[in-house]
Queue: 2 jobs
Job 1
Amino acid sequence: MSRSIFDLPTPCFLIDKDRLQKNADRMISICKDLNVSLRPNTKTHKTIEIAEMSTGGTKRCIEVSTLVEAEMYADAGFDDILYAYPITNEKIDRCVELMGRLSEFHVMVCDLSGVECLKANMDKLPAGKTWSVALELDLGFGRTGFNPDSNDFVKAYREIVKTMTLLSLYYFSGDAYIIRKRSERMQREHDVVHSLIACQNKILSEFPNVKFILGNGSTPTCSEKMDIHRCLVGEFHPGSYVFNDYEQYLAQTCRQSDIVCRVMTKVIAHKEEKGMLIVDCGSLGLGHAGIKQRPDDFCIVEGETNLKVVGLCQEMGMIQAKEGDLDCKKYPVGTILFIYPYQVYMQDIHLDSFLCGYVVLWCDTRLRPGLQRQPLSTPSFMFTQRRPWWTFGGLVRAGNVQYKGPADTREGRQPE
Ligand SMILES: Cc1ncc(COP(=O)(O)O)c(C=O)c1O
């Protein structure tokens, strides 16, 4: 049995449970204070334990991005689940099944094909139920959702209001990630809320008695109390806030001390002539996210301000000095390093995983005899396989670690 995290095999994905709980509680408290509901997007972690934490134990009002997640949460007693992903025909049967099992299950449409799909499948619905629909708007992010000025938006809400139940007008403010400056982000959020309210009013002018809410947010927009949200009758649906990561830190959404997940990796070789350390964590453990946009600074090596990850192979990472030549002898083979990844949810985390109180260990399933890697076209496969190995055993506490992390030196969200 492991006694300290240094006894765990590397690479190893570590979760600081105390930080996790704090982040979850903090969002619950922000929402309470602003009088908006919280519908956490659970796709970031895809775990029952963290979904329980982020709903404050109610197990109600969550959103997912895959049906495997929805089914898993339904099995675990969760209810009021929004499948926040464009609906298509081949998903209908499983959605109908979930509607039969849950008191509330909602789907999302982002274009007219989604509305048509729901309309064509009305006859499959369980007796007494109608489709409950989040209508996604594109208020600037440019990914999915109706243009609020388009005829398609009008056609969609008319059809939904007349023949289905409109749950919400939904905007995922992904554009907030691009706006690094807090003041500009707040201004942008101001405009978003006004646009949402304008869309709401447009529907209400035609259908004054229809009841629906406004769904808003992403981690950067939800993570701080903005007064503008007090006029929002609706819900927030952030996801990454439970973990936070280097990207959130750079967006000044969190402090370094709010980042929950680190990858523990080990120096396995040196390339002396290049002043380079080779570690046992590559793109499968850290993900490729950020490396293109920020090749010199896409993750943090904890406590090692002069080290940077300069390259990633599948299962190896290359580390050099930011300035000057690295003396490899200072990092003998076996040295443990902790890396905060850029986007925690983008990691190709393969899951010989066990959650033991404070530490989650995620390794590559391919190393585990008898387990087959599933095709990547079904990303949530991990889930069904991950679950049986997870236990809350309390084996290892991150607090046992002797290593002292660095002081928070960079600019981030200020402590309250
Ligand atoms: C539709 C939708 N809603 C909510 C979220 C959660 O966003 P975040 O992780 O930025 O909080 C996402 C994330 O990609 C999303 O795609």
Job 2
Amino acid sequence: MRSLCLLVLLLMLLDCCLCQFPRPCATSEGLRTKECCPVWEGDGSACGALSGRGFCTEVEVSDEPHGPQYPHSGIDDRERWPTAFFNRTCRCAGNYGGFNCGECRFGYWGANCAEYRESVRRNILTLSTAEQQKFISYLNLAKNTISRDYVISTGTRAQMGVNGENPMFSDISTYDLFVWMHYYVSIDAFLGGPGNVWRDIDFAHESAAFLPWHRVFLLNWENEIRKLTGDFNFTIPYWDWRNAQSCEVCTDALMGGRNALNPNLISPASVFSSWKVICTQPEEYNSREALCNSTGEGPLLRNPGNHDTNRVQRLPTSADVEFAVSLSQYETGAMDRFSNMSFRNVLEGFASPMSGMAVPGQSTMHNSLHVFMNGTMSSVQGSANDPVFLLHHAFIDSIYERWLRTHQPPRSNYPQANAPIGHNDDVYLPLQAQQIWQWLLGAGLFGAVLAVLIVSVFIVARRKMKHGQRKKRASSFGERQPLLQSSSEEGSSSYQTHL
Ligand SMILES: *[C@@H]1O[C@H](CO)[C@@H](O)[C@H](O)[C@H]1NC(C)=O
Ligand SMILES: *[C@@H]1O[C@H](CO)[C@@H](O)[C@H](O)[C@H]1NC(C)=O
Ligand SMILES: *[C@@H]1O[C@H](CO)[C@@H](O)[C@H](O)[C@H]1NC(C)=O
Ligand SMILES: *[C@@H]1O[C@H](CO)[C@@H](O)[C@H](O)[C@H]1NC(C)=O
Ligand SMILES: *[C@@H]1O[C@H](CO)[C@@H](O)[C@H](O)[C@H]1NC(C)=O
């Protein structure tokens, strides 16, 4: 079958891993001082400063204007992230990473993080049975093991008291940490009063940060699974859905077959039938002005192919992918879901992969897979509950990489200003609690903002070459093999209604 290797370029200098929120910072003290510079246990100093791993410094946030889609300011914790929570974090030196500089940046290994090693993501359908089983057991372990390093917030910063006297944080499993982060980055803004929300806001979808944000997200997710299992060779496999007629990974050996008694559920022969979803009730949280708190909300729902065929007529083809990759402009126009001839908007799935024109009311490409799954995957905020999300986004990331290698865009191709809130270059998005400096997104040619969630999370993608001063690294990509070879409106609670 298709056996394309995905080279994930962990080549990028991504700094790692702070997801939302580092446990040592989730305290009254952390909230009061707004400092998140945890001690590295290797030498007992904050940010491993004594060993030269990093230092504690002020967070700098871009002040470039954002687009008109979100007309408010000063009401949502995610604005100017992560400054509502922290204004000082660790900045790691060299190849160090992590919220206390105790880890290595993506792609680097060893005690001094000096060894560079690439990882390769592989097609799930070509893994051996033992490898497939290992992957599923890792996911299940992650679903059932409390994260050691991160917690989630269960309230807004305001709800935690002026001086942080009422910290609201909660333990969460390693898998659900990522479900929660994906939820948090896409929630509506609370405007005050039950159900009074601003829906046209999303720090990871419907604009420029969509691709880099999800890239960093997967890298962090992969990293946390590696730490949990001790298998540092682990990579998230992908599902190559080009020309698929059905959910080929929805079998009991993989992501779970269909339940014979209820087509919306997963077969009891799959471990995923016992998983409980979280963060799937946006209207309920909005009515209470509360955040999802990780309470289980019922089984995973999935009914592939039972979707509204007026919205999604077919799954993406190879020709669709070729067309998307051929588009040279990353963003166009207002840089939102109405953009025409934008690579990002076509690949995300708000525009036609045949003409490049926005197609309101339809879902193509990335969005079409979400809608096709007709269940938990079909709502933006809860979609990461379904492990199919991982396989799907690993493949989306490979197409992004292919586009970067094809076009080798200058950094200026990524918007510096006027993108919807959270999507300009050099902003941190809710993913990480630590700054990610010098991210190399993509072929080293493209810097972007990613957001990771931590308290943020910042996600920043910084390219090594800023404003013209190039440094080496950036180059190596162009010569590599491509990763893949061919052998409605307001509100965004659902891929179906909105996207
Ligand atoms: C960071 O937050 C602390 C605590 O609120 C405050 O005292 C300090 O002035 C802030 N620093 C900056 C640069 O805003
Ligand atoms: C991980 O990969 C390295 C380098 O390819 C190899 O030496 C090592 O044996 C692998 N470890 C495992 C547990 O497979
Ligand atoms: C957690 O969320 C659930 C469902 O939204 C809610 O019923 C419950 O009261 C919340 N628990 C806490 C402690 O806030
Ligand atoms: C499943 O598809 C039907 C239309 O076929 C639609 O009415 C329903 O909202 C979809 N459910 C989800 C969760 O997407
Ligand atoms: C996209 O193209 C369509 C068809 O030409 C046009 O009606 C629409 O205004 C364009 N959208 C934007 C944002 O320019």
